[in-house]
Design brief:
Elements: E1 3-9, E2 12-19, E3 25-30, H1 41-47, E4 51-56, H2 70-73, H3 76-89, E5 95-100, H4 102-112, E6 120-126, H5 134-145, H6 153-163, H7 172-182, E7 183-185, E8 191-193, H8 202-205, H9 211-217, E9 222-227, H10 235-244, E10 249-253, H11 265-278, H12 299-302
Parallel strand pairs: 3-4, 3-5, 5-6, 6-9, 9-10
Antiparallel strand pairs: 1-2, 2-4, 7-8
Helix pairs in contact: 4-9, 6-7
């Protein structure tokens, strides 16, 4: 990253990573469940110096604060509040949004809610949508709820590479950098990943929501990236999404599962064309807008098929 800034939200510090801070165009890039904003370094470099990439670390991840009250803070309703605080901090009235997994769902909620929809100019969802595979979700919740401990950094590196094969083809250097950016030392000298194991409690505390209705309400330009072998976002769901949003652009990332890393030309070139076509080239001063109302009815509908 080229710069880091800090934002306070309900006694939590939010670390925000920035690439090309003086670029004329801006995109908000929001990471997945147990990752952090540093994952967007390859995307930022490939988008180039015309694009400022702003990538927050969600609370409980990366360089941001861990919550003492996960039932209150590790929820999409709180992430919405944080997202609006990020937009206001950087004086972004309308955001070009790229979200991977959890970050895509957050962008979808903002774009669908009548109180916040005007803050999203265009939306890119990376391997996520209004219907997600229930078994894949359950496996994610289980994996991330168990604290990880490794005797050596090389063990952590290998575990990271094994678990995140869905990211696609990464070089040894890229895996190495990801390991360095994803590791934290424990008091006994061992290693663990750079997230709070309690982040998985959002699967328990977040209330269900009709996400198909959210999807149908979105009116901004849309692009969906799906990993060719994704276990979370099924091909059948994509077909239904296209029926409800016939103007959406679709990209299948070959050789990837959940979720494409957005680190190569096959993925970034179409995304960059989308942003260049639809993305705002200015970031006008944000007005005093109230945060979106509390999100309700979430996980139950997320894992059910459309009816």
């Amino acid at each position: 990253m080229d710069r880091i800034e800090y934002i306070s939200a309900r006694q939590l510090e939010i670390a925000v990573r920035i690439w090309h801070p003086d670029a004329p165009n801006t995109v908000i890039a929001w990471h997945g469940l147990a990752r952090h904003g540093g994952d967007f370094e390859p995307l930022a470099r490939k988008l180039g110096p015309q694009w400022r990439v702003i990538a927050p670390d969600t609370p409980g991840r990366g360089l941001s604060s861990w919550s003492l009250y996960p039932a209150n803070d590790y929820l999409y309703s709180h992430y919405v509040t944080i997202a609006l605080a990020v937009l206001d901090h950087f004086h972004i009235a309308r955001a070009n949004w790229v979200g991977t997994s959890m970050g895509g769902l957050l962008g979808m909620l903002l774009a669908a809610d009548e109180t916040t929809a005007h803050r999203i100019h265009c939306l890119v969802l990376n391997d996520v949508g209004p219907e997600l595979d229930s078994q894949a979700l359950a496996e994610m919740a289980t994996y991330f709820s168990v604290p990880k401990r490794f005797s050596t950094l090389s063990e952590l590196h290998q575990a990271l590479e094994n678990h995140y094969q869905g990211f696609g083809t990464l070089s040894h250097f890229e895996w190495q950098q990801m390991a360095l950016n994803s590791a934290r030392r424990l008091p006994d000298g061992s290693w663990s990943f750079h997230y709070d194991p309690r982040i998985s409690e959002q699967f328990i505390h977040d209330t269900p929501r009709d996400t198909w209705r959210d999807w149908q309400r979105i009116r901004c330009p849309l692009m969906v990236v799906r990993g060719e072998h994704s276990t979370l976002l099924q091909a059948e769901s994509i077909k239904r999404m296209q029926v409800d949003q016939p103007q959406m652009e679709m990209l299948e990332a070959t050789g990837c599962g959940h979720a494409p890393m957005l680190n190569n030309d096959q993925q970034v070139a179409p995304l960059k064309r989308f942003l260049n076509h639809y993305g705002d080239i200015t970031t006008p001063q944000a007005t005093n807008l109230t945060p979106g109302r509390r999100i309700s009815r979430w996980w139950q509908r997320l894992i059910r098929p459309h009816d």
